[in-house]
Each structure stands twice: as C-alpha cells, then as structure tokens.
Amino acid sequence: MKWLKNTFFLFSALILFSCGDPGEKTSEKTPVNTNVNFAEHVAPIVFKNCTPCHRPGEAGPFTLLSYYDAKKNANKIKFVTQVRYMPPWPADKSYTHFAKERGLSGEEIALIKDWVEQGCKPGDTSKLSPPEFFTGSFFGKPDMVIPFHEAVPIKGNGTDHFYMVKAPYEMKSDTFVRFYEFVPHKRKLVHHVNGHLIGFEDGKKKNAYAGKSYWQDDPKLSNDVYKEMGLANDDGTFPPMLANTVYYLPGYSAQVFPDGIGGYFMKKKGAILLKNLHYGPSAIDTKDSSVINVFFGPPPKRPVQELQLGTFGIAPIVPKFDIPANKVSTFSSRWTVPQDISILSVNPHMHLIGKTFLAYALTPNGDTIRLIRINKWDFKWQYYYTYKHPVKIPAGSTMVAIGIYDNTDKNPNNPFHPPRDIKERNDMFSMGTTEEMFQFIFTYFPYQPGDESLDLEN
Ligand code: HEC
C-alpha cells in the first residue's frame, strides 16, 4: 500500500483530472487510437484482466463489472496500468515465463489511456455483460466448503495475532482432492496461512468436531494442546497429518495442476489444521470466519513434493540472517540437488523490506537454469509461480536463491523510521510482519523422461 500511496502522491495531479480533461498529459508516446469506447475496446481487457479480482468477495478494493465502475475509476485505472502496477505480476518476464502470466500488452495499455483521454465513451453497452463468476471462489463452485468450527476473535489492540485453528469435517466416504482454496473472511487482516490435513482412520474417532476450535499464541505447541483441540484419536493416539496442503498469502490464489499431478487423499472424517494462521494488527475487536473450499479430483499419478531453502528450510541463509539498520544487505541460500528433479512451481517469500529476489540453478556442466527474478519485491503479491512446463534440474546442480533487503530510511516500505536492526529468529514469531523471512519454496517431483513437455498451463 505504501509504495502505491507514495507513487500516487507523486502523481496526484493526474488523479484530479476526470475523463478526457484536456489539461492531462502523459509522458508515454504511444499512437492514439481514435474513437475508443468501453463496450468494444476496453471492456474485453478489463473483464479478462481485472474483474477476476475486482468483483464482490475478491481482493480488489472496488468492483470492475460495468461501464460505470470503470468510468468512476478511470484515471486510477489509467495510472495503474501505465505504471504496470495492475494487473499485479512481480516476476520479471524478461527472465522467465510462467503459466497464466498476468499483464497487459503495450497496445492494451494504450487503448485504456486513449479511452480515458477521449472522455470515457461508453459505446453500445446494451449487449455487454460481465463474465460470470462464482462468488466465494476464484475457481468456480467448490465440491465442498469447510468452515471454521467457530469464528476466531481478533483483538483490536494493534498487534499481530497467531492462531492454530481447526476446521473439522465429516463426509460420506473417503475421496481424492485436487486442491484446497483458502478464502479469507477478514481479507485485510489475514496475513498468512499454512494448513495441514488430518485424516482419522476408520472407527478411531467418533466426533471430528469435538475439542477446542482454536488456540492462540503458543510457540511451544505440544501433544497436550493437540489433544485439547480434539486432534487425537479416541484412544489417545494421533492420526497421520499431511503438511502444507492449504496455503494463503496476500495476493495468492491456489495452485492448480493438471489432472493426475499432485492432489491429496482425504479421509471421510478429519480436519484441516491451520497451524500458523497469522492475522495482522487490527484497530477494532472483530471476528474471522474464513472457509476452505475443496475441489475433488482423480487419484494423483504423480505426487508433488515441496521443499524450501532459507528460513525453516533445508539449506541455511548465508551470512546469518541479521539485517542491520541503515544498510542494504544481501543474503543467499544454496542447496545441491541429490537426484534429477522436475520443478513445477516456485514461491519466493520475504516481508516488507525485501527489495529484489533471484533464484537459479547451476548445473554440473556450468549451465545456468533460470528460475525466477523479482526486481521490485512487493509484499502484497506472493504467488506460487507455476512453470508452463516442468523445469528439469539435473542431479548435482546447485540451487541458488539470493535476496536483497533494504533496511534504510529510503525504503518507503520500511515499517520503522528510523530503521531498526532486524535479527534472525527461528520461531513462529519470525512470521510477524515487521520481522523478516527469506524463503525460496518450490514444488517438484522426481524427474521422468518427457516431463519437459508436460503442459502445466491448460
Ligand atoms: C490478482 C488480483 C487483481 C487483479 C488481476 C487486478 N487487481 Fe487491481 N487491485 C487488487 C488489489 C488486492 C488491490 C488493492 C491493493 C493495493 O491497493 O495495492 C488493487 C488495487 C487496484 C487499484 C488501486 C485502488 C486504490 O484506490 O488504491 C486500481 C486502480 C486497480 N487495482 C485497478 C486494476 C485494473 C485496471 C486491473 C486490470 C488491468 C486490475 N486492477 C487487476 C487486485 C487485483
């Protein structure tokens, strides 16, 4: 938000003009399209690239469903498309391409600009209808929705809150799940979720709903806590728990792989345990009732695994992850790949003072395999970037992730002015927004010949 606010401040003069104000000048020299109107030229761009998020229930702060929505926000739309802030896509497209990349072409950006400058003409909007979306999901109607058992109370005391939350369920029979989608209720407060899948074996649990629904702020989680939350079988033993099945960060939408790739086996009685549900500070007392959408699918032929370098990961951060005040610091994490693998998706993770992120692999014969580059880190957009085709990393390669952090006063996203030393911490509180993390998360499976041509996009 801060970056945008600052940029808006600089360009605030631009925002004051309304559609077609002749006083308005832009620096971009693009050919002017004549007679641009909404229905014919602008609506197709907006409906495809903006409306999926700018509609009721989704993350965008206003709706873009009609001519009037667009007209009302015309100058803002022109501005955010010109500076390529919207649609959000932080990964550098000149470095690597991914499936379902967001972004407008130069031509589309020019059309929007010309439409605004020519007075936001409606055209024939009578035949125009926004695409149909299912409210409550990015992907359409889910096969099942698992709500929180109880709403989670959030105190309006201006501090971060960490919860473990249980979302229990019961179904008629066991099934396979293609993916889970976490849908935040208090979108502005939900910061991060990492959910695990618990499945009670047949006959071992009478009531999946028994026990406490949530647990607050205890980094020393123990089996006693799990028991109080009703996560043990009735005989006191613990059911299997599958890590990292539900995931959410601001700007994130669930990872969906083609049929047969990835997915989960789901017992008919169980729970999603959101182990680190992190809410940012709230000014008022409130409650969160987020839900988890479930999309069933076929049994997975190729199970997908996940690993991470850096914080909580399989490879350390070098040097020690302390970020001194008033300095720009560089950190890296390196890991030697033990077997041929195919990488499906990557997810760089830093917090507010992250500046740039780079990841690649160096093969034993000296080739570089590009993975991702983010030139302007933005905390708000933390996707799992899925490749169009799996990327093969041969055994013996070194995977390298490099993160640069700007802990100076010049960084508008720095939460502290004057800047403070930020120290490495390896407990759950490292996830506090104003602490820092450095993670390079990736999903993969063992390489099989032909993986390079698997289509992960369609
Ligand atoms: C992936 C979801 C997503 C897509 C796609 C998307 N937006 Fe947004 N947009 C958001 C979110 C979330 C915010 C609020 C965060 C922020 O202000 O930085 C936002 C903010 C904005 C703002 C600034 C609002 C304000 O007053 O601060 C404008 C203008 C905007 N979007 C226009 C667009 C346009 C135009 C498109 C398509 C070309 C688009 N967005 C595509 C999610 C999206």
What does this structure look like?
This protein is of the alpha+beta class and 458 residues long. The protein has three domains: 2-127, no CATH class; 144-296, Jelly Rolls (Sandwich); 305-453, Jelly Rolls, CATH 2.60.120. The chain contains seven helices and 19 strands. It has helices at residues 2-10, 12-16, 38-49, 67-72, 74-82, 106-117, 223-228; strands at residues 144-147, 152-154, 161-170, 175-183, 190-199, 214-216, 241-248, 264-266, 269-279, 286-288, 291-296, 305-310, 328-336, 341-349, 354-362, 368-374, 385-393, 398-406, 439-446. The chain has a five-stranded antiparallel sheet, with no helix packed on it. A four-stranded antiparallel sheet has the order 1-11-4-8, with no helix packed on it. Strands 12-19-14-17 form a four-stranded antiparallel sheet, with no helix packed on it. Strand 15 (354-362) and strand 16 form a beta hairpin. Helix 3 (38-49) crosses helix 6. The longest helix is centred in the first third of the chain and has 12 residues, at 38-49. The chain is globular. The two termini are 33 Å apart. The protein binds heme C (HEC). Heme C (HEC) binds at residues 1, 4, 49-50, 52-54, 59-61, 73, 76-77, 80-81, 86-88, 102, 104, 380.
Task: Give the structure's gist in a few sentences.
By secondary structure, the chain is of the alpha+beta class. It has helices spanning 2-10, 12-16, 38-49, 67-72, 74-82, 106-117, 223-228, and strands at residues 144-147, 152-154, 161-170, 175-183, 190-199, 214-216, 241-248, 264-266, 269-279, 286-288, 291-296, 305-310, 328-336, 341-349, 354-362, 368-374, 385-393, 398-406, 439-446. Strand 15 (354-362) and strand 16 form a beta hairpin.
